[in-house]
Amino acid sequence: MLRITFGGEGARGFESGIFDEHVKLIFTDPSTGELRLPQQVGDKLEWPTPKPVGREYTIRKHRPESHEFDIDFVVHGEGLAGSWAENCTIGDRLHVAGPPGGWEISRDYDFYVLAGDETGLPSMARFLEEADPGMKGTVVVEVPDKHSEIDLADHPGFTVTWVHNHGKASTVLADTVTATDIPHGASVFVWLAGEAAAIKPLRGWIKHDLQLQRGDISVTGYWKRGAEDTHEHLDRDEG
Known about the structure:
The protein is of the alpha/beta class. The protein has five helices and 14 strands. It has helices spanning 80-87, 121-130, 172-178, 196-199, 202-210; strands at 2-6, 22-27, 39-41, 44-46, 53-58, 61-63, 68-73, 95-97, 111-116, 137-143, 158-164, 188-195, 217-223, 232-233. A six-stranded mixed β-sheet has the order 11-10-9-12-13-14, sandwiched between helices. The protein has a three-stranded antiparallel β-sheet with strand order 1-7-6. The longest helix is centred in the middle third of the chain and has 10 residues, at 121-130.
């Protein structure tokens, strides 16, 4: 995991108040050398066709007083954004679109379940830092191995469990999440994010075991194995 701080005059007025809201980082098209950018029209962005080459990332920290925000990059492999993060230097410029706004989770649930892989880790880390003292729940994080674990905020109401997939497709995240001991009769919110195929099976657990309504869940496939620029809201699927 590599953290990059964005700042300067271009970040003045940037806002981020929700733990899992994201921005789109816009890159020059590696095949054509063309940089395609959206246009601001009122309070919305109009995107050109074909769409710009972009990757979506979560805001890890936001410091409005200094006009700065941080993004954590997973740099395994040769992805476009990860490669940029590894090679950028102070003063480099990058176009950032968003965040588009988001949905603020109620802080009145009795129990929270948050789970995901490294791509969901920035959101989970921010959630723990910003959670009210009286909130309770569990966090499950899937990483390749123990060396990929990082320090997280020590919240008295939350347990944190690290599971290892050894760099391969695995059911370890779903197996651990479905074994969660949820207090009987508790109102529950479930937040899941990570590789789409790894978290998609958990929809059945949410629907049939927990019997939660759509407003009580957020399930997002941040990426798909073998695909790029994926951001799939799996809680909108049927099943």
